[in-house]
Amino acid sequence: MPGSPKLIDKLLASLPKEQVNALSRLIELANQRGTAIYLVGGPVRDLLLDLLPGDLDVAVEGDAIDLATHLAAAADLRIVRHARFGTATVSGDGAHIDLATARSETYEAAGALPTVHPSSIDDDLHRRDFTVNAMAFALNGNAVGRLLDPAGGRANLDAGLIRVLHDASFQDDATRILRAARYEARLGFRIEEATHDLLVRDLPFLETISPARVHRELARTLLEREPERALLRLADLGALRTLHPSLHFDSELGAAFGRLREIGPRAVLTAYWPLVTWQVAQPAIERVITRLALTRRQADAARALRELRGNAPRPGASPSETASIFAAQPAAAVWALAAAASGAVREQAHAYMVTYRSVHPLLRGDDLPALGVPPGKAVGEVLARLRAAKLDGEVRTRADEERLVRGLARNDE
Ligand code: CTP
Questions:
Q1: Measured from the CB, is residue 133 less than 6 Å from ligand 1?
Q2: Banded pLDDT at 106 (limits 50, 70, 90)
Q3: Could you tell me what percent of the chain has a pLDDT over 70?
Q4: For 103-208, where are the E strands, in sequence order?
Q5: CA 96 to CA 40: how far, in whole Å?
C-alpha cells in the first residue's frame, strides 16, 4: 500500500485545536523515546471515509501506559490507566486520546475477555474484529504517513463490506455479531457473504457473552442515529432471539423508534430501552431484564411499559384521569407508549408528556388557608382537585380557581 501523506493532513484538519496539540505532544514524546505509534481502528476507518473521527485511538509499539503518563505530565492532562490491558486514556481541556500497547490476544474460552501479550502493530491489527477496523496509520518513525492494511480493509471500505479476519472471529468474541450489525447500519455497508455465514453459524456463541457485555454493545447501538436499522438487522439475523427467545424487532417497532425522535427532546431517547422490550410478554420480562443487564431505571421503565400496555387509560378518559394513570409511571415508559402504542393510547400518552404533566394551578398551597382551607392534609387534596379541574378545562383564571377552592372548603365544613 503506498503511503498516504494526505491522511495526516486530513487528520489534523479534522481535529479541534486541543486534540492537535495533544497529538503533536504525543508524537514529540514518542520520537524522543524511539517508540513507534499509530493511529488505529475507528479513526483510520472514519478518516478514509471522510467522516469526522471520534476518539483518537493510538497503538504504541512499547509501553502505552508509560508513554501516556509522560503525555499527561507534559500536557497537564488527566490520565486513567488500565494496567491489565496495557491501556490508558489521557484527557482534559478538549483533548482525549486512548493509548493502547500494541498486543496480540489469545482467547482461552469463547466469550471471555482475552489474555493479552505486548506485540507488534501487525499482530495488533490481526486480532481485530473487521477488516475495515484493522488498519493503522503510522504517526512517526520511518513509516510516518503510511497506511498499514494487512487484511484488505481499504478494499472492503471501498466495496462497503463488513468482513471478519478469520473463521473463528465470532467464536472468540460474539459481541462482534452485535458490532457487525451496528457498523453495517451506521456506514450503510453489507456484511460480506462468507462473514454472514460464519455469523449465523456462530449465533449460539452469544450465550458465552455476559449480560454486562451485551448491555454495553446494545447501549452503543442505541446511541446511533437510527438504531432501529441495526436492531432490525439483528432480528433478521436471528441474533435477538438468540439473546432471548422473546426478543423481537420488526419494521413497526422500527417506525416507533423514528416517532420517538420526532416527538420530544433528546431525553426521550431513554425510552429506546423499554421499546426494545416492547414485544416481551409478562412471564419473560424479568429474564430479559437480566439477560440485557438493564439498569434499575431501565428495568423499571420496561416493567412499567408492560404494565401500562394492559392498564392504559380507557378511550375517552378525561385529561385528569389520564394524568392520574401516567403520573405514577417512569417518563421513559410513557414516552415509549406515545411512540409505539396505537390510536387513543398513543395520543393520551403523548398529550400527557407534552402538555398535561406541566399543567399546574395558579394558586399555591400558601394561598389556600385564606380561602378557607385548613392547613394540613386538606391543602394537598384541594391542590389535586384544582389541578384536575384545570386539566379538564373546568377552571381557567385565578378567579375560577378561588371560586372552586371556596366551594370545596364550604362543602368540607
Ligand atoms: N475491537 C475488536 N473487537 C471488539 C471490539 C473492538 O477488534 N470486540 C477493535 C476494533 O478494531 C475497533 C477498536 O477495537 O475499531 C476500538 O473499539 P471501539 O471503540 O469499540 O470501536 P470503534 O471502531 O472506535 O467504534 P466507534 O466508531 O463505534 O466508536
A1: yes
A2: confident
A3: 98
A4: 103-106, 115-118, 136-138, 147-148, 161-162, 190-191
A5: 15
Q: How high is the pLDDT of residue 53?
A: 86
Q: Whole domain around residue 403: which residue ranges?
A: 365-411
Looking at the structure, tell me whether residues 23 and 141 fall in a common domain. yes
Whether residue 62 lies inside any domain: the answer is: yes
Ligand 1 geometric centre to CA of 342 (Å): 38
Half-sphere exposure of 374 (CA within 13 A, CB side): 7
* Residue 375 pLDDT: 87
CB 175 near ligand 1, within 6 Å: yes
Domain match, 84 and 18 both = yes
Q: Is residue 306 part of a domain?
A: no
Check pocket membership of 124 for ligand 1, CB cut-off 6 A. Answer: no
Same domain, yes or no: 130 and 4: yes
- What would the pLDDT profile of 207-230 be if each residue is shown by its tens digit? 999 999 999 999 999 999 999 999
Residues 237, 190, single domain; the answer is yes
Amino acid identity for residue 254 in this structure: G
C-alpha–C-alpha distance, residues 237 and 100, integer Å = 33
Q: Look at ligand 1, atom 15, and give the residue with the nearest C-alpha.
A: 41
Q: Which of 226, 243, 260 is the last residue of a domain?
A: 243
9 within a domain of the structure (yes/no)? yes
41 alpha carbon – ligand 1 mean position (Å):
6
Q: What is the mean pLDDT of residues 234-248?
A: 97
The domain spanning residue 177 has which CATH number?
1.10.110.30
Q: What is the pLDDT of residues 283-297, one digit of tens each?
A: 899 999 999 999 999
Is the Cα torsion angle 327, 331, 332, 334 positive or negative in sign?
positive
Read off the CATH number of the domain in which 1 is found. 3.30.460.10
**Nearest of 149, 353, 348, 340 to residue 258 by alpha carbon:** 340
Q: In this structure, are 152 and 93 located in the same domain?
A: yes
Q: What is the pLDDT of residue 1?
A: 39
The reply to whether 33 falls in a domain is yes
- Total count of domains within the chain: 3
What is the reported pLDDT for 413? 60
Alpha carbon of 392 to ligand 1 centroid (Å): 53
